[in-house]
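User: Please fill in residues for this 402-position structure.
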């Protein structure tokens, strides 16, 4: 399913377009903890909840033979990476010479469809193709796992049982609506499917029958429906036509790193220059994913839209950079701090605990370093005479421990 690491936290995985489940598809409230009862008992309760959500007895009867436990799926779901991913490791694996070459060839083969998609949805061919490339290597790795069984497994015993039960109900609705047959309903171990790896709720909300066959066939060898569906997802999430996802930039000597994370339109007046191309013509946010020593980017609103597709910054940076390479740009000019190791989960949690104890708000102590944790790090760095780039590494943790 993925070229980088066999298993990461689900939100970091390509293949997880997780739009909110529509209200009509939501099951009755149930605990997130894995069920300890038998599968038959769980299925009986689930079917009652599914019927309450509008799934017919006929659909339940048709799909019942496909609902079963997949031990391999449970093993993958429960295996957590002890170490956090370094963004450059992910990008190295996602943006390879082979993927760039194959992507350019794919763009050429499907130029007509991609042009029509851009005209209708405003999303450029290189962005759509980059999604396709990272998700399934341009359709080569669409996954063969039985989706109904996968979702049933994760709904009964997975770490996010309520979420996957909602997705299973959405999948049953797809079958009920004639979008796919149970036997053809295949995809990744985590429940995503098709060329661009939609989850069922996202399919119901965003999939479009672009090829003109009446049903959005995201499994077909012709990727048109899947590519158009991905573009529709981005468009409806707020993609701005004609705006880049981000631009790599160079910061002037003595630049105030306190501006990291700020969204503004006057970066040029501050001496910031584009490394390739031109500065965004819209308010954009300065991000330093490798700290002051790594590449700098001005991220536009389209960066945030890509993050709706997958919440991981590493994913968005890889996707955006691949799209740039497909459109003819060269490699990043900035160098990553490759000597820095990844922090363990215990270390990431410890860092948040120390910051919280000192009065900084990290929005929880969970080992996930989102915007609140980065802002807390910046505040701590400023208070301690350090460049406030928000970058988290072992050296920072060592200083926090003093």
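Assistant: Residues filled in for all 402 positions:
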């Amino acid at each position: 399913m993925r070229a980088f690491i066999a298993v990461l936290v689900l939100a970091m995985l390509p293949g997880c377009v997780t739009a909110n489940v529509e209200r009509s598809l939501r099951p009755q409230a149930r605990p997130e903890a894995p069920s300890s009862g038998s599968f038959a008992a769980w299925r009986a309760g689930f079917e009652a909840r599914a019927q309450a959500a509008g799934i017919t007895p006929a659909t339940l009867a048709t799909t019942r033979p496909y609902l079963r436990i997949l031990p391999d799926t449970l093993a993958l779901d429960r295996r957590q990476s002890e170490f956090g991913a370094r963004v450059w490791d992910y990008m190295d694996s996602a943006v390879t010479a082979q993927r760039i070459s194959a992507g350019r060839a794919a763009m050429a083969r499907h130029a007509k469809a991609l042009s029509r998609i851009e005209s209708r949805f405003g999303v450029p061919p290189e962005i759509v193709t980059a999604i396709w490339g990272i998700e399934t290597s341009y359709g080569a790795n669409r996954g063969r796992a039985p989706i109904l069984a996968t979702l049933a497994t994760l709904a009964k015993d997975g770490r996010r049982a309520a979420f996957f039960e909602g997705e299973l109900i959405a999948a049953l609705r797809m079958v009920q609506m004639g979008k796919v047959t149970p036997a053809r309903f295949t995809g990744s171990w985590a429940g995503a499917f098709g060329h661009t790896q939609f989850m069922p709720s996202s399919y119901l909300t965003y999939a479009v029958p672009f090829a003109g066959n009446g049903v959005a066939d995201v499994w077909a060898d012709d990727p048109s429906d899947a590519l158009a569906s991905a573009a529709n997802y981005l468009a409806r999430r707020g993609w701005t036509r004609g705006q880049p996802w981000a631009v790599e930039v160079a910061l002037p000597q003595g630049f105030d790193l306190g501006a990291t994370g700020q969204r503004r339109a006057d970066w040029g007046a501050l001496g910031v220059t584009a490394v390739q191309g031109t500065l965004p013509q819209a308010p954009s946010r300065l991000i330093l994913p490798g700290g002051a020593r790594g590449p700098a980017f001005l991220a536009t609103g389209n960066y945030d839209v890509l993050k709706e597709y997958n919440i991981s910054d590493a994913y968005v940076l890889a996707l955006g950079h691949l799209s740039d390479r497909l459109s003819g740009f060269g490699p990043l000019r900035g160098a990553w701090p490759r000597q820095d190791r990844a922090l363990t989960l215990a270390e990431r949690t410890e860092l948040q605990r120390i910051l919280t104890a000192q009065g900084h708000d990290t929005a929880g102590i969970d080992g996930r370093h989102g915007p609140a944790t980065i802002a807390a790090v910046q505040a701590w760095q400023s208070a301690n005479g350090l460049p406030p780039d928000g970058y988290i590494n072992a050296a920072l943790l060592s200083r926090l421990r003093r």
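For context: The CA atoms of residues 99 and 137 lie 7 Å apart.
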